[in-house]
């Protein structure tokens, strides 16, 4: 069964780093679909510059026209912080025990995984595919002891492993490095500079129209 990919994020705003990650991993892992799940009110960082509704809308604009990409608004539309482990548990219920699920993470997110709520449960719910990200070398030395032990015992280099079992594998995936972050886009807009070509034009237009990140 082809895995369903899950890409969570603040998406404040969504940019080509996110979109290229999703496209690369959809191809490399032969994903049936990628679900973009914008976070609600995040527990681990400052309030985003755009509202959940605005972040949802920017994702909607960015993925329009890609039949493999879908928007899942469940976290953004709930007022709660939204823990990934809870979202995955709901998806597991909806999609059934046999459906392979694959959480897509950039290297920075993966390296911080051991700080996530009930993080070890994640491996019982989904596989994890980790994409390279400039500035965050994916090396054992960068991981804490607990994450390293967990990752090493689960590491696979064959995408077919993700189809053979519903959850539990970790796969590192090389992707073309794009040194783009939402933080740098917000800073550029705040400084009156153009963020064009770092994110889709439709999202640039939305940011301008709604006076975001000023
Ligand atoms: P911010 O700068 O506000 O922290 P961000 O650009 O890191 O935001 P998020 O929405 O926090 O974006 O990221 C969602 C997911 O996408 C995370 O797993 C993150 O690692 C990944 N990601 C974001 N940008 C890139 C990139 N340029 N290359 C690879 N992965 C990325």
Automatic annotation (TrEMBL):
<keyword id="KW-0547">Nucleotide-binding</keyword>
<comment type="similarity">
    <text>Belongs to the NadD family.</text>
</comment>
<keyword id="KW-0548">Nucleotidyltransferase</keyword>
<keyword id="KW-0520">NAD</keyword>
<protein>
    <recommendedName>
        <fullName>Probable nicotinate-nucleotide adenylyltransferase</fullName>
        <ecNumber>2.7.7.18</ecNumber>
    </recommendedName>
</protein>
<keyword id="KW-0662">Pyridine nucleotide biosynthesis</keyword>
<comment type="pathway">
    <text>Cofactor biosynthesis; NAD(+) biosynthesis; deamido-NAD(+) from nicotinate D-ribonucleotide: step 1/1.</text>
</comment>
<dbReference type="GO" id="GO:0004515">
    <property type="term" value="F:nicotinate-nucleotide adenylyltransferase activity"/>
</dbReference>
<dbReference type="Pfam" id="PF01467">
    <property type="entry name" value="CTP_transf_like"/>
</dbReference>
<keyword id="KW-0808">Transferase</keyword>
<dbReference type="InterPro" id="IPR005248">
    <property type="entry name" value="NadD/NMNAT"/>
</dbReference>
<feature type="domain" description="Cytidyltransferase-like">
    <location>
        <begin position="6"/>
        <end position="186"/>
    </location>
</feature>
<keyword id="KW-0067">ATP-binding</keyword>
<dbReference type="InterPro" id="IPR014729">
    <property type="entry name" value="Rossmann-like_a/b/a_fold"/>
</dbReference>
<dbReference type="GO" id="GO:0005524">
    <property type="term" value="F:ATP binding"/>
</dbReference>
<dbReference type="GO" id="GO:0009435">
    <property type="term" value="P:NAD+ biosynthetic process"/>
</dbReference>
<dbReference type="InterPro" id="IPR004821">
    <property type="entry name" value="Cyt_trans-like"/>
</dbReference>
<comment type="function">
    <text>Catalyzes the reversible adenylation of nicotinate mononucleotide (NaMN) to nicotinic acid adenine dinucleotide (NaAD).</text>
</comment>
């Amino acid at each position: 069964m082809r895995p369903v990919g899950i890409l969570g994020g603040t998406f404040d705003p969504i940019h080509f780093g996110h979109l290229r990650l999703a496209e690369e991993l959809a191809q490399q892992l032969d994903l049936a679909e990628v679900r973009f799940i914008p976070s609600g009110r995040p527990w681990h960082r400052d309030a985003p510059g755009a509202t959940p509704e605005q972040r949802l809308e920017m994702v909607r604009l960015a993925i329009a026209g890609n039949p493999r990409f879908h928007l899942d608004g469940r976290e953004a539309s709930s007022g709660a912080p939204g823990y990934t482990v809870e979202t995955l548990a709901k998806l597991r219920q909806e999609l059934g025990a046999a459906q392979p699920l694959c959480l897509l993470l950039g290297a920075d997110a993966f390296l911080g995984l051991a700080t996530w709520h009930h993080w070890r449960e994640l491996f019982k719910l989904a596989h994890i595919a980790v994409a390279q990200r400039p500035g965050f070398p994916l090396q054992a030395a960068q991981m804490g002891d607990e994450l390293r032990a967990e990752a090493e015992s689960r590491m696979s280099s064959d995408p077919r492993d993700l189809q053979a079992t519903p959850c539990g594998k970790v796969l590192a995936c090389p992707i073309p490095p794009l040194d783009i972050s939402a933080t740098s886009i917000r800073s550029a807009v705040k400084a009156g500079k153009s963020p064009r070509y770092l994110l889709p034009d439709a999202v640039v237009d939305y940011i301008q129209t709604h006076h975001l990140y000023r």
